Write a sequence for this structure.
């Protein structure tokens, strides 16, 4: 008789792979559930954050020295642009309202609306 | 019995030949794979109804002439893109529901801009969601809206529903929505109050980078990425497998950054104080009590969810005040619950039958 294993030469390999995945995930989960892991993770994270903060401060000083805008300056400009965009959107809406086309989508064609009278299949049969 | 010997030999020969052919295909397709463009996702036709910073409201174009009266608003998880609900034609929950006669809107999130680092629960549940609901009411001409929340989109939908108990929401559907955050054991340990300085992190980075969110998801199952790559190599001769793998892979890696204050609030209010579960959460000065939710509710949870374990999701149905309430536990994981072949067999038909009678 042809067994399932004979029909699939890689069945044993797949089983092993699946078992390996389950075991590694389980062991890793056990380790990561320990408080010591959390402590170590945040110690490394804190050090990285500290280095990042120091680098950012140094970069900001350097950019100021060579008279170039920093990321913070660019973000400020971006914020102002967003405000202008929002105001433009409000004005567009106002114009649309005045033109009587309020409710139209911002992009894409306006499609004809379907009837909203659909009933679930069982009920539909009952009505018929 | 005598015939079993030659038959077995022939079967082994066929297998060896089959594997040899696959090995050749693997080499050819393996080279092709390296040059494949990004998979196309989220292709179901839609219109952009509203955009405001991180918030995007889409309306999908109906695929039938007659739809159910009550429109549906999907609220996507803030950590991931909404196209998991619309991966590819034939693998799309959105397309499935459109063909079944539902009018679909999706509240999807983009990466929060630097100036949106101050967004909080208040912005999501007292501004974004209510405004989208209002926009849908105007667009559809219907007073009622059904809300479907996925993962953390479910948490936001629950908070919205609890605050707006008398609002226009007709039905609530949640997919794998955590309520008891003590039960998210690994996330609990990683955000341990004794060791995790969330204030320093948020004050330093503004918005929490997507790499950090992605890594935390990956760490839950560290061996699965390696096994996934091995399985891809094994099945690389199979175009359908590769297509599906690449779509899921693209989505999983397309993790979003989180607004800093929102992350701080999630850590302190939900992970540390477990306020949603304890009914002590206050959003915009309003108490969030899950028991205030009295509308029909369906909660779909996955049996093998490694992100939101069942014990974290279980209290939702127990705590709501609704009389029409149902929880379904389906085989699968956090993602395969909503997308992929198993979702199409299990969740989608169930969702259709539950929603149909409640959407008229």
């Amino acid at each position: 008789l042809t067994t399932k294993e004979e029909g699939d030469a890689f069945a044993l390999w797949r089983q092993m792979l699946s078992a390996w995945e389950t075991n590694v995930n389980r062991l890793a989960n056990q380790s990561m559930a320990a408080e010591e892991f959390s402590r170590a993770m945040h110690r490394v994270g804190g050090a990285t954050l500290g280095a990042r903060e120091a680098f950012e401060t140094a970069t900001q000083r350097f950019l100021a020295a060579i008279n170039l805008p920093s990321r913070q300056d660019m973000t400020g400009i971006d914020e102002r642009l967003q405000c202008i965009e929002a105001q433009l959107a409000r004005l567009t809406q106002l114009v649309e309202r005045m033109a009587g086309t309020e409710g139209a989508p911002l992009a894409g064609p306006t499609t004809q609306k379907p009837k909203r009278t659909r009933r679930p299949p069982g009920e539909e049969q009952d009505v018929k | 019995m005598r015939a079993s010997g030659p038959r077995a030999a022939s079967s082994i020969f066929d297998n060896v030949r089959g594997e040899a052919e696959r090995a050749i295909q693997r080499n050819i397709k393996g080279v092709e794979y390296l040059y494949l463009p990004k998979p196309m996702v989220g292709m179901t036709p839609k219109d952009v109804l509203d955009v405001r910073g991180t918030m995007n409201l889409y309306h999908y174009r109906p695929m039938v002439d007659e739809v159910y009266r009550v429109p549906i608003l999907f609220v996507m998880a803030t950590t991931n893109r909404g196209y998991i609900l619309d991966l590819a034609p034939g693998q799309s929950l959105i397309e499935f529901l459109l063909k079944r006669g539902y009018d679909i809107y999706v509240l999807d999130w983009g990466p929060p801009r630097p100036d949106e680092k101050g967004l909080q629960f208040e912005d999501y549940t007292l501004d974004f969601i209510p405004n989208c609901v209002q926009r849908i009411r105007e667009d559809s001409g219907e007073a009622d809206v059904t809300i479907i929340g996925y993962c953390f989109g479910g948490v936001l939908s629950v908070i919205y529903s609890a605050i707006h108990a008398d609002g226009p929401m007709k039905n609530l559907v949640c997919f794998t929505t955590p309520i008891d955050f003590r039960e998210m054991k690994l996330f609990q340990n990683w955000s341990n109050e004794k060791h995790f300085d969330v204030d320093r992190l948020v004050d330093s980075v503004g918005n929490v980078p997507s790499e950090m969110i992605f890594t935390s998801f990956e760490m839950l199952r560290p061996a699965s990425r390696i096994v996934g790559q091995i399985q891809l190599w094994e099945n690389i001769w199979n175009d359908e497998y590769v297509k599906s793998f690449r779509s899921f892979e693209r989505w999983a890696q397309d993790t979003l950054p989180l607004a800093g204050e929102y992350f701080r609030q999630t850590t302190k209010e939900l992970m540390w104080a477990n306020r949603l579960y304890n009914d002590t959460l206050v959003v915009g000065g309003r108490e969030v009590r899950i028991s205030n939710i009295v509308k029909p509710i369906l909660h779909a949870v996955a049996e093998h969810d490694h992100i939101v374990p069942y014990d974290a999701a279980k209290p939702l149905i127990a705590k709501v005040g609704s009389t029409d309430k149902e929880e379904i536990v389906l085989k699968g994981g956090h993602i395969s619950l909503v997308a992929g072949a198993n979702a199409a067999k299990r969740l989608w038909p169930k969702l259709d039958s539950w929603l149909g009678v409640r959407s008229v």
